[in-house]
Amino acid sequence: MATPYKECPHCGAHLDSGEKCECRAEEIETVHSQKCTCGLTEQDVESGWECPLDNPNETVEHCEDCAFAKETD
Fold first, then answer.
1. C-alpha to C-alpha distance for 8 and 23, rounded to whole angstroms
2. How far apart are CA 54 and CA 31, in angstroms?
3. CA distances (Å), origin 37, targets 9, 44, 46
4. Banded pLDDT at 8 (limits 50, 70, 90)
5. Alpha-carbon distance 22 to 42, whole Å?
């Protein structure tokens, strides 16, 4: 049986299993480029971690609220 679709909590788009919604891509890029930088390493990604801002199922809305965030000068 096929995995049912999931719905983006931000725009309501129907997404396939594992698919990421791009509705907030510009907003996320702007947030990432401000006063924080992502501390998510390649090793973290290989271990299955992903940026919460890229995951529509996460509640993190700003980079500075993320556990991986590092402040920039």
1. 9
2. 12
3. 25, 15, 19
4. confident
5. 22
